[in-house]
């Protein structure tokens, strides 16, 4: 039994349309699902990824309108690393981000560092160590420069350089030294790291809510049992419509989720129309009229381009 690397990462934003404009247009990811928070259905939950919404490509956001900007600190993820093909792609992205008003800094020959509109720390990194590419199509972004999936994430921790046995002994990560780890699945891998915390954090817009690791469906209950045996408090299995989930907080304070690989995002709408209609969890379908009136409409750039082409 082993985890299949990353499933998704979930953040908080204060404005859904800005979120869609940046990730589905500026960065060229596909909006693959427009739904609501299971626990707070008055809040959007937006999913972005490759053309199929593949695990390993998925970034998601809870929208809490007007949420104040947060700040990453102790026990929080502070940087997400998105893969691109090579240095030429980093050059392309530096120019594209600048054209849209975002400052990007070439931290080294393999890394371009910037922040999104909420202040979330992002890096584009050269992804040449084995992950199969997970691309979305965008008319302004050549395929050779498209984002190819999530490569890594970094969190703040006390005792960052001390090996975390829950990662290695319970979850199957490989400790690479210092605060660096790698999680290898059968097809994909993910780089995880702790940096020394120098401050406490404040949840809010631009901060990470949780990070989810991918599990084969048949192993999911086994992971729940393994976390329990290690002394962790883990939730019951929760049906999230597009995957099933368990949650627990690892010893450094980061909220972890383990999510199944199926059924996927095409379970309730056609694959060629992902993210174009508001899809509601089954438990909230009876609230549709109320929610459609309360939620601010969000324009999907892909659907908008198709309508423009027809006009």
TrEMBL record:
Annotated VOC domain residues: 5-139, 149-261
Entries under InterPro entries matching the protein: Extradiol_RC_dioxygenase, Glyas_Bleomycin-R_OHBP_Dase, Glyas_Fos-R_dOase_dom, VOC_core
One Pfam assignment: Glyoxalase
Record PROSITE patterns: VOC
Top-rank lineage group of the source organism: Bacteria
PANTHER family for the chain: RING-CLEAVING DIOXYGENASE MHQA-RELATED, RING-CLEAVING DIOXYGENASE MHQE-RELATED
The protein, known as: Glyoxalase family protein
């Amino acid at each position: 039994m082993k985890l299949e690397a990353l499933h998704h990462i979930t953040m908080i934003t204060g404005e859904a349309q800005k979120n869609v404009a940046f990730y589905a247009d500026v960065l060229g990811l596909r909006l693959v699902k427009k739904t609501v928070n299971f626990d707070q259905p008055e809040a959007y939950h937006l999913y972005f990824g490759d053309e199929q919404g593949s695990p390993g490509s998925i970034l998601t956001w809870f929208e809490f309108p007007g949420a104040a900007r947060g700040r990453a600190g102790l026990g929080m993820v502070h940087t997400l690393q998105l893969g691109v093909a090579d240095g030429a792609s980093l050059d392309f992205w530096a120019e594209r981000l600048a054209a849209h008003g975002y400052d990007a800094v070439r931290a080294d020959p393999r890394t371009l560092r910037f922040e999104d509109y909420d202040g979330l720390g992002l890096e584009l990194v050269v992804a040449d160590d084995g992950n199969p590419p997970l691309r979305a199509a965008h008319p302004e972004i050549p395929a050779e420069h498209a984002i190819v999936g999530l490569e890594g994430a970094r969190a703040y921790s006390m005792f960052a350089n001390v090996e975390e046995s829950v990662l290695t002994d319970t979850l199957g990560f490989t400790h690479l030294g210092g605060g660096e780890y790698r999680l290898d699945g059968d097809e994909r891998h993910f780089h995880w790291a702790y940096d020394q915390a120098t401050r406490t954090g404040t949840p809010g817009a631009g901060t990470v809510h949780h990070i989810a690791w991918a599990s084969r469906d048949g192993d999911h209950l086994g992971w729940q049992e393994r976390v329990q045996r290690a002394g962790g408090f883990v939730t019951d299995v929760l049906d999230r419509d597009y995957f099933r989930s368990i949650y627990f907080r690892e010893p450094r304070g980061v909220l972890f989720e383990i999510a199944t690989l199926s059924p996927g995002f095409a379970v309730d709408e056609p694959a060629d129309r992902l993210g174009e209609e508001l899809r509601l969890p089954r438990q909230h379908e009876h609230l549709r009229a109320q929610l459609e009136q309360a939620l601010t409409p969000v324009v999907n750039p892909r659907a908008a381009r198709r309508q423009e082409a027809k006009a």
